[in-house]
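Q: I have 333 residues here and want to know how they pack in 3D. Can you give me a structure?
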Amino acid sequence: MSIKFTLNDQVIEAEPGETVMNAAQAAGIAIPALCYDRSLAPEGSCRLCGVEVDGRRGEFTACPLPIVADMVVRSETPAVLQTRRQILELLLREYHDAGYASNDPESEFMYWVRRYDLPLPPAREPRYAVNSDPNPFVWVDLNKCIHCNRCVRACAEVQGRFVWDIAGRGRDSHIVAGAGTTMIEARCESCGACVAYCPTGALDNKMSVGSGKPDRIVTTTCGYCGVGCRFDLHVKDRRILRVVSNPHAAVNGMELCVKGRYGYDFVHHPDRLTKPRVRKYLLDGAPRPKDRGPWVDTDWNTALSLVAAKLVRIKQESGADAIGLLSSAKCTN
């Protein structure tokens, strides 16, 4: 049985035990958060999702806050907005952008910085090396890390690899692969889950850094196997810039394997076939030559019509048992 509560003067129905953050998102109400993702266990460490609850003192983080019937929640009070500005200002003090991805899509973190009209800090020397890990697919720039721990939780909770952890204390704390090794040495499968969950660009796709913003986004299905994972392609000038997880994908959600996320460069290979091909004698209606003759490009209707006609003829001449079909879990079928 659903319960009702009020958020910013709007009455919302929710399931018992559901959090304020999840219910707000379902109702289309945006509450800022940087450590939160619906597919991860709530942590409340960034404190950006603070809200006020009538009858209670202080502010509460919305991502772990369970809904109680008839509770009244406010996420846009002057005090809450001021707290958010202060949190973002503190995070910006440790944030440094070397500019490698300045033309790329805006990160989640910078979206909220812009929304709250905060100035960027002056340029300074980075604390960590940029592109500091030799992983061929994942770009690591700890100067952008805000310690939201999304990458750590995604690798553990979603992928089950436990590659990332937190090392050091206080200002010196930072994410680390394994026990201070490279990502590959720490059993990384290069699935890119940590990249997908990172809100700042501290972890990014090495193949896409600096490639720019897309002129269109195409939602499609991965062509590598039969699972049916879906994702978004960022496309510019008819070239794929990057693969981005689509959280609404029914089969896979935010998850992808290394092939699905990074194995897209074959699309632009000069030897890739982009049209169906058939033997020339089939189009001419000529007898089959001994060497079967050359391949020629044709259109899909023609190619499929030739295949259908051939299957019908085989069935008529030899029966249905003369036709076999190969399928595989490694094909899109």
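Q: Anything worth noting?
A: The chain has a mean pLDDT of 95. The CA atoms of residues 224 and 331 lie 6 Å apart.
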